[in-house]
Structures are given as structure tokens and as C-alpha cells.
DNA sequence: CGTGCTATTCTTAGTTA
DNA sequence: GTAACTAAGAATAGCAC
């Protein structure tokens, strides 16, 4: 209740709703489901890459968190989450052992929160060196009675980015997150820790 | 466990990681945090709109579900979720009262699932006529001890789209969703029902 | 804080190899 | 299927208001 007072406010750019022609490339394309399945998959792949790129850029340029869930035409789930705001304590203001301990405690608490949340969701620890973006298999994304659809799309694995703009020598594997508490409380989004993904 | 076997697979378009120049417009722009706060906010607004548009297009063109979480530079959360795949029963195959009742039961169950989930998360019913995209106030997105940041950004409310491509005369206010069960199980994403937003 | 403009760059549908 | 190419059109940075 405290949180959701503005829930229900319509929030949608008018430009979105007024568009009839969403495409580019050689031909225009109506804003409707692409009937041809193979064309649909091709468009899916290209646009999925595009939107992940946009999400990455938005998160970096504006120093914000962006999370993205995409269910493919085959029911495979791709998720993306940006690295999140870095924890940048004002080192100038750490002038005592007490302050230093307080910061350390804060960071430890944040790390434990992340680990706990991760275990709740995935039942196994995450590898923090991996993925700001990964897939789960189609089987996880649908009911047993809905598996009739083809479950192809076996290998969508991409190379991990190697040109991480975030310094590898960062002392902490995770960055405590301004939104973490909210995310933990709401339990409808999971933080994936600081991956290498958001280049 | 059943679901997350491929967890950890790196899944990231190489084009994302290799980019250094994410911008367009008049000048190029380095893929780094925009230092000027007012410029950062402007870029945020424009690109937020852009990515929501992209998410909408992707969901419609490929008939898939897309969810998006964006924390603004001011800590305000904007969420978006596509309408999801429509429930399109093969009417030709409804040849008996029994079949019809079964379909009706399925839909009722789905609606109740959605309402239950919504109540769990928001503690109040959602207005299904509104929003595929909305904001919650900054206060909801941060800890009490982290509210030092300016909490401006008062009115980001946009006009509800009026040119919904989905027929208003659709008999059901919500569309049972292939991914709903997964979402309900995982509890890290919430379905917002069928809004008018995904034009 | 928006809205509108425009030059410039980016995205991507269709195609080819 | 995948990877590269390219033309057409979309997105947007910087301005002006």
C-alpha cells in the first residue's frame, strides 16, 4: 500500500500507440503478428538483440537498472538485467574505524541478501562471473499441457563479452543495489548480481 | 531445478559488447554514464520511450511476452509488460456444451490466478482497463536511508493510448497466458492483465 | 518539464552467399 | 540454419521554444 499509490496511472508514450509502421529495413511491416513462422523467428532474433542492446545502453548512459524478460516464440525465456548502480561510498567521509566497519557491514548484508534471494529463486548459487543475460529452457516456461509447440531453438548461446567496461579489479563481486530491498520485498524480479554482460 | 538447468549459459549478442558508440542523433555519444544530470534525464526519457516502443513491437510482431523494469535516475520504477499471447481457442473444435464449459472453466481459473497474484503483489485489485506500463513512486523503490537523492520527476504520466489494435469488444478482460503458470511459480514477475497499452 | 525540429547515426527486413 | 550485406526507415542528440 505504501508503495503502490500511483498504481494504475496510465503511463505510455503516445508515440507508441499511434504507430502503425514499426519497422525499418527494406520494407515496411505492419504492427501485427508475423504469420510466417520462420520469418517471425528471424525477426525475433534480430529484435531481441536490438532491445537487449538498447537496455544495456540505457542502463549505462543513465546509470540505472533495467530488467528485461522475453519469452521467445518457442517459449524460451531470455532474461536480462543490467549491472545496477555501483555502490560508490564517499570515501572522503570514511574517517573512522567505525565508519569503515559500518560500510563493510552494509556491504556484507547486501551480499547476503543477494545470495539468499538467488537461492530462493534458483536453488543454487549463481556464478557472478557470468551473464547479465541468459536463457532458461522452454520446458520451464510453460505448462505440461502446453508443450505441443515446437521446442527447437536449441543453441542461442552467445559469446561472453570480453571488453567489459567495468574494471575487473573491482574489489567486490556484487554491487549493493539501491533497489535491492524493493526487489526482495516484491519478489517479482531477481537481481542477477554483477555480471560481465553490460558492456 | 527442473527449470533452470541451462542457468549460467552466457547469452549475449556480441554486437552489444563490441559497441563503443551507442548513439545516433547529432553527435556520437560514448557508452558511459552521462555526467550532466539534466542531459541524463532527457536521454533517459527519450530512450525509455524508445525501449518501451521496441518491447511493444517485439511482443506484437512475434506474439510473445515481454516484460521490462526500468529504474529512472531518480529511483522511480517504470514497468512494462506486454499483453501476452492471446488465448485463441479453436472455436471450430468447440462442438459440445461440455467443451464450452471446459473452456469457460479454463478462463475463469486463469482470471482467478491473475487476480490472486495481483492481490499478493499489490494488495489491491488492478484496473484491467489500464496500463501495460506504469510507474510506482520513488518511495517504493528505495530504502529509507537511501532517500537522500532528489525525488523530483513528479509527473511522468502519459495519455492512455486510444488506438488499441486489440478489439475492445473482446469478451474477456484478461487473456490466459502461456507463461502465467511459470510466472506465478517463480514469483519474480507479475502479469498486469490485458491493458490497452500494447498498440 | 514538455514539444517540435533536423542532422546524423542506428536498426533491421529482405536478400545473398 | 547462419553470416554478411544493404537500402529503407526509425531513433535520437542537440536545439529552440
Automatic annotation (TrEMBL), chains A, B:
GO molecular function: DNA binding; protein dimerization activity
Chain segments carrying region Disordered: 152-176
Major location (coarse): nucleus
Annotated MADS-box domain residues: 24-84
InterPro entries assigned: MADS-box/MEF2_TF, TF_MADSbox, TF_MADSbox_sf
Cited PROSITE patterns: MADS_BOX_1, MADS_BOX_2
Subcellular location(s) per record: Nucleus
Keywords noted in UniProt: DNA-binding, Nucleus, Transcription, Transcription regulation
Record carries keyword DNA-binding: yes
Keyword Protease tagged: no
Any Pfam family matching the protein: SRF-TF
Protein name, as recorded: MADS-box domain-containing protein
Native organism: Populus alba x Populus x berolinensis
Amino acid at each position: 500500500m505504501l508503495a503502490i499509490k500511483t498504481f494504475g496511472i496510465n503511463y505510455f508514450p503516445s508515440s507508441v500507440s499511434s504507430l502503425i509502421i514499426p519497422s525499418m529495413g527494406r520494407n515496411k511491416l505492419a504492427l501485427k503478428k508475423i504469420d510466417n513462422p520462420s520469418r517471425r523467428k528471424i525477426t525475433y532474433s534480430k529484435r531481441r538483440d536490438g532491445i537487449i542492446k538498447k537496455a544495456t545502453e540505457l542502463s549505462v548512459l543513465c546509470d540505472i537498472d533495467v530488467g528485461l524478460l522475453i519469452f521467445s516464440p518457442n517459449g524460451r525465456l531470455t532474461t536480462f538485467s543490467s549491472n545496477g548502480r555501483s555502490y560508490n561510498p564517499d570515501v572522503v567521509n570514511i574517517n573512522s574505524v567505525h565508519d569503515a566497519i559500518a560500510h563493510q557491514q552494509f556491504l556484507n548484508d547486501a551480499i547476503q541478501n543477494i545470495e539468499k534471494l538467488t537461492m530462493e529463486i534458483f536453488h543454487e548459487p549463481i556464478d557472478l562471473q557470468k551473464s547479465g543475460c541468459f536463457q532458461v529452457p522452454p520446458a520451464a516456461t510453460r505448462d505440461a499441457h502446453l508443450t505441443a509447440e515446437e521446442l527447437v531453438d536449441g543453441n542461442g548461446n552467445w559469446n561472453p563479452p570480453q571488453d567489459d567496461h567495468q574494471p575487473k579489479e573491482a574489489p567486490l563481486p556484487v554491487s549493493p543495489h539501491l533497489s535491492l530491498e524493493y526487489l526482495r520485498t516484491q519478489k517479482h524480479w531477481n537481481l542477477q548480481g554483477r555480471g560481465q554482460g553490460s558492456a
